[in-house]
Amino acid sequence: AMSAALVGYSSSEEEEEGASRGGGAQGPPGASAGRPRLPAPAGLLGDPEPEEAVSDDSSRHGGRVRGFPHERGNWATHVYLPYIAQEEFLELLELLVSRARTYVPSLAAMEEFHLSLSQCVVLRYHWIEPFVRSLRERLAAFHRFFCVADQVKVYTNQNKTRTFIGLEVSAGHFQLLELVSEVDGVLEEFDLPTFYKDPSFHISLAWCVGDLSGRLEGQCLRELQDILDGFEDSAFLLRIQWEQIRCKSGNKYFSFPLR
């Protein structure tokens, strides 16, 4: 049933996803705007649904509610660094998820992995080409770089309807901020929301419906970090060289190689 649950995020249905770190007290509703969040992770899966479908039957996507109204000609768009999972990474993922399920049985493992450089924003169809052209120009000068993602963290999305376990970046933060600043520049050209202030860059590993951060933090999180730290290949695995940036708009993918 795991894959069925994930297919529910069609590209036109991506909610504002992701992560206020730790899911703790957030202050008044308006205060959470600067918190890091993550566009819908499984929305990166290939999506058979036609982009122009206008029905919004929530039973078709696990009862989830869209973060923005879907209208004809609106394309959900997301800029990210794709992470290609090796076999050893999937072994580590399996260890982490099976341990975490002893605390939250409903956790589903991600099937694709990425690090977000933008929120999920809405582009009109005729804006896609100039948007991608502008991204290409701004990102052309960037070189490949490494980062280390080795800190297990718990995240919730903005409206607390979902909880995630992710790997937070502990090195390479500065280069990621530089990339975000270029992506933000493109978003501003199109009057679209920029990325969160003080983001927690991370790769989501697993998710569940509801705010279950309380069950995953503390003891569970310590056990997960111990598993990660003790994993034979973890230092090698979690030192990631990014080779390309990707933009997904509706069902179209655009790739921007780093030099």
UniProtKB/TrEMBL annotation:
Where is the region Disordered?
1-66
Key word Nucleotide-binding present in the record? no
Q: What reaction gets catalysed by this protein?
A: a 3'-end uridylyl-uridine-RNA = a 3'-end 2',3'-cyclophospho-uridine-RNA + uridine; a 3'-end uridylyl-adenosine-RNA = a 3'-end 2',3'-cyclophospho-uridine-RNA + adenosine
List the GO terms this entry assigns under cellular component, sorted alphabetically. nucleus
Keywords in alphabetical order, please. Hydrolase, Lyase, Nuclease, Nucleus
Q: Which residues form a coiled coil?
A: none
Q: Its Gene Ontology biological processes?
A: U6 snRNA 3'-end processing
**KW Methyltransferase (keyword) present:** no
Spell out the InterPro entries in the cross-references: Usb1
- Fetch the Pfam families from UniProt: HVSL (PF09749)
Q: Where are the transmembrane segments?
A: none
Q: Where is the composition biased (Low complexity)?
A: 28-46
Task: List, in alphabetical order, the Gene Ontology terms for molecular function in this entry.
Answer: 3'-5'-RNA exonuclease activity; lyase activity
Its biological function?
A: 3'-5' RNA exonuclease that trims the 3' end of oligo(U) and oligo(A) tracts of the pre-U6 small nuclear RNA (snRNA) molecule, leading to the formation of a mature U6 snRNA 3' end-terminated with a 2',3'-cyclic phosphate. Participates in the U6 snRNA 3' end processing that prevents U6 snRNA degradation. In addition also removes uridines from the 3' end of U6atac snRNA and possibly the vault RNA VTRNA1-1.
What is the protein's name according to its record?
Answer: U6 snRNA phosphodiesterase 1
The uppermost taxa in this organism's lineage are:
Eukaryota, Metazoa, Chordata, Craniata, Vertebrata
